[in-house]
């Protein structure tokens, strides 16, 4: 009984801190609107030739539509370098169709990259990087859709020598199914919300795989793409290494779109756990601190423990209001109409997110592209189970 006041005070402080986090996210959305306004008013003729690097494996139903957005760029001079492991990959036929439709866009395909490390995507990127003709390079995942002014917008900050990496926020679009919609909801209201909060409080020191615009000299300065070869979070690490090398990492105002396929619950949970464990190994302190972002469930815990205390309900309602308002604002600035329509699912998503966050502490194994790996303490990948020593 004597512990009850202390328990109430502790839980109440957690709810207040979580509400403060949601308020920071709200401030982050205002900061992003200002960034967008400033970039739209920026007048510059900085349009260096660009090599767009596209690692690809396989061809799903949306691949052609995603790649076509890169062929339709309003940009004076650029090339697209596609990197694949297998010349018989189904994506090759998609690329050929686009080549015929857009003969004015210079394209190159490179195949069968030399072994570089465990991460096959990095091997593909390094192969494309070596084939790229231009100093300015833009790395982008295969499942990304971009607007026509994409290259103009993401390359613009690189006119400043101190800027080494530019990365983009993104929203998800679901191909159907509850799990795909829940993933999209989490991208906008949790992941990118956390990115904006980081920008506002500590600045960018990492990059996102949806877009990484940089220069070859920047990659050379931190030791080359081979530094990423055994890491799962290669996009995060590229930005982090550039930051440690003394360059600024900038968030662009250009919002791109990732296509989230229909998936089973097993696939959804496997992907979320892989993401969680990757973040935990990359930023262990930051990952632990993510406990404070679970606003809905901290508030629910407070009122469940003290249902007869009016202050508990007041704090819960304030926290819940801020959570929904921050989520709505995030969806608005990202142009995520799907999330706006599905904000009623936010408590379910928050319940899953809390469980996934706890699961992130439960081990170091992850499943990626059908293979199991073990994450080391510094984020490197190891085969799992480990090969036997003889």
From TrEMBL:
Transmembrane segment boundaries: 6-32, 287-306, 312-334
Subcellular location: Membrane
Pathway: Sphingolipid metabolism; Lipid metabolism; sphingolipid metabolism
Keyword vocabulary terms for this entry: Glycosyltransferase, Membrane, Transferase, Transmembrane, Transmembrane helix
Chaperone is among the record's keywords: no
Catalytic EC class: transferase
Gene Ontology cellular-component terms listed: membrane
Membrane-topology descriptor: Multi-pass membrane protein
Cross-referenced Pfam families: Glyco_transf_21
InterPro entries: Ceramide_glucosylTrfase, Hopen-assoc_HpnI, Nucleotide-diphossugar_trans
Gene3D superfamilies on file: Spore Coat Polysaccharide Biosynthesis Protein SpsA, Chain A (3.90.550.10)
The enzyme's E.C. designation: 2.4.1.80
Single GO MF descriptor: ceramide glucosyltransferase activity
Record carries keyword ATP-binding: no
NCBIfam families: HpnI (TIGR03472)
Protein name: Hopanoid biosynthesis associated glycosyl transferase protein HpnI
Originating species: Chloracidobacterium thermophilum (strain B)
